[in-house]
């Protein structure tokens, strides 16, 4: 029987760190009671960053272990084979699988699902107990995908590695009633009328951006639901006796925002995700539970659980963590948990300009797409005093922020654009990852209607929110 540990990577899509109530992460609502308890047996990283503010480049960086991939990977590109950690594990005898209903990860031309032995997407039919609590989604909630993963893993006779991407925390937010404890029927009605992708209504000024905060109440309920899914996964593995032989990684691919003001007057407010440099879009939760097998860190190691690491961490470090854990590295000089910390204390993030489909939607709703078509680059640097220096650019403008605590920030003003550009990964630095162009691809940019938007302000007033 193999002693190699299983690997489980759980990615709650659009889950920002600031809304996770687990120990050392903090929020005003108790969104994650299970994770709060789970931190006693896991390592919590309080300064983890994603490498982009949306799904595709963030996952590509996480899968390949290269933060620089985000500077090139987009909706019209594809990774060449044999470059991801899951392909590496498959070559080492692991059975690998992906579980998600994220359309950018399943059956999209970028091919990230092909890096797994199997991939499970949305079913044509499913038990009503998995239904979402709303009218916008015709797919099951995250419990269905978690149960599919648990069923699949129970059938494996060799080490397995699975990635679960949960869309419960991605718009539209439709948590089940028992978790939707901060919103009300009026707020749910607003979201239902606004459709899948409501950010343009706020960015255009058609609707006051202040009303975006209303949707945050449903979002927090979705986080509470995801926390319950985490619990089902962990406790089922524990009951089976396989938890202690499994590396558990819980994180997000990017954050979410509800109208947060940005540091530059030329940058739009942070609404949802996909556009901009705001910290809410890049600061993500990260929890790691190491296996307790003989070849890895033992259960008696004091730092195995309840440890908080406040150094700058990056999602591109996850493959390094997996390699070190699978290899059984456990010396006084090599702590696998440190593998996710940014190399040399520096990491980067990039958002390439939005594609043609999104530009058409921006033009249709906002009259012009120009304010939203800029590129974003961010450089994070850990300083000797423990603070983190953030230098970011939005188009031709750049600024600097000092991150002095978990969520405390001091904007220190604009800086020269060259300061950021000189630190962004060059083509030479991304040359180690082969990325190919594709000619035909799905954008999913126009799959909603905004007929309600013209009357939304009146609707909000009628519902008691004016």
Automatic annotation (TrEMBL):
Residues 5-317 form the Sulfatase N-terminal domain. SUPFAM superfamilies: Alkaline phosphatase-like (SSF53649). It holds the Pfam family Sulfatase. Gene3D superfamilies: Alkaline Phosphatase, subunit A. This is Arylsulfatase A related enzyme. It comes from the Archaea. It comes from Haloquadratum walsbyi J07HQW1.
């Amino acid at each position: 029987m193999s002693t190699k540990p299983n690997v489980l990577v759980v990615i709650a899509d659009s889950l920002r760190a600031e809304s996770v109530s687990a120990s050392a992460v903090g929020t005003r609502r108790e969104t994650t009671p299970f994770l709060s308890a789970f931190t006693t047996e896991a390592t919590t990283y309080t300064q983890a960053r994603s490498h982009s503010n949306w799904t595709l480049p963030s996952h590509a960086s996480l899968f390949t272990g290269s933060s620089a991939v985000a500077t090139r990977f987009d909706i019209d590109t594809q990774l060449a084979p044999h470059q991801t950690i899951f392909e590496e594990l498959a070559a080492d005898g692991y059975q690998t699988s992906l579980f998600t209903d994220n359309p950018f990860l399943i059956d999209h031309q970028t091919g990230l699902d092909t890096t797994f032995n199997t991939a499970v997407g949305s079913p044509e039919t499913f038990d009503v107990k998995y239904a979402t609590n709303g009218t916008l989604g015709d797919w099951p909630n995250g419990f269905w995908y978690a149960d599919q993963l648990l069923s699949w893993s129970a059938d494996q006779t060799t080490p397995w590695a699975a990635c679960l991407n949960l869309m419960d925390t991605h718009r539209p937010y439709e948590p089940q009633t028992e978790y939707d404890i901060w919103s009300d029927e009026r707020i749910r009605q607003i979201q239902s009328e606004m459709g899948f992708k409501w950010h343009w209504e706020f960015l255009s000024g058609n609707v006051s951006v202040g009303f975006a905060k209303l949707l945050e109440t449903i979002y927090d309920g979705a986080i509470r639901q995801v926390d319950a899914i985490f619990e089902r996964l962990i406790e089922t593995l524990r009951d089976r006796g396989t938890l202690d032989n499994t590396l558990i990684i819980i994180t997000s691919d990017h954050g979410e925002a509800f109208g947060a003001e940005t540091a530059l007057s030329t940058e739009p407010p942070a609404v949802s995700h996909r556009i901009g440099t705001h910290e809410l879009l890049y600061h993500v939760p990260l929890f790691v539970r190491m296996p307790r097998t003989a070849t890895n860190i033992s259960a008696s190691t004091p730092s195995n659980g309840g440890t908080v690491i406040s150094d700058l961490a990056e999602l591109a470090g996850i493959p390094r963590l997996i390699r070190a854990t699978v290899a059984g590295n456990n010396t006084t000089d090599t702590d696998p948990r440190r593998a996710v910390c940014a190399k040399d204390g520096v990491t980067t993030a990039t958002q390439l300009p939005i594609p043609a489909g999104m530009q058409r939607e921006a033009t249709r709703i906002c009259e012009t797409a120009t304010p939203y078509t800029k590129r974003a680059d961010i450089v994070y640097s850990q300083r000797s005093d423990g603070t983190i220096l953030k230098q970011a650019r939005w188009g031709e403008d750049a600024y600097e922020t000092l991150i002095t605590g978990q969520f405390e920030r001091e904007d220190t003003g604009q800086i020269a654009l060259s300061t950021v550009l000189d630190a962004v990964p060059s083509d030479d630095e991304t040359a180690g990852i082969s990325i190919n162009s594709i000619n035909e691809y799905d954008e999913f940019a126009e799959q909603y209607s905004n007929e309600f938007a013209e009357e939304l302000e009146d609707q909000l007033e009628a519902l008691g929110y004016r």
